[in-house]
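[job 4471] stage=fold_predict status=RUNNING
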Amino acid sequence: MSLKLNLGLSKKIGLPDYGSLGASCHVEFEADPSLLFHDRAGFQAQVRNAYAACQDAVQEQLASQHAAAAAQASQERIGGNGVGRSAARHATAAQVRALRAIAGRQNRDLAAELTRRYGLERPEALSIRQASELIDLLKEAASSGAPR
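[job 4471] inference complete, writing structure tokens
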């Protein structure tokens, strides 16, 4: 006999002009029921790992959606002559230093994160908003104890 566990996580973030983005992850898996009676720490570790995997998937999806929404908003701001009315400013030097420091403490490959999330190679190419978002995501991942 096995124990069936069903775990779910949903998250929604607000956008300007009353918009929002949402993502969710739901997993179902089987565990050895004896863990509940003989190895509670092992049982809880399995649940924590499943939750962390869901949390990472949700954060990645939200970041991807947010980047797509930002790109779409940027395209909408561009006039017919190809000149943007509000050009996005690049990440500040302080944001770049913070990203490198946080990624270093977490042993994350910052270049890989940038490519995966934004299609960029260097943190200097991020917009101020993207850099801020990535700093928040990396800090949240560190505080939640999520696996890298």
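[job 4471] summary: Residues 79-86 have pLDDT under 50 and may be disordered.
[job 4471] exit 0
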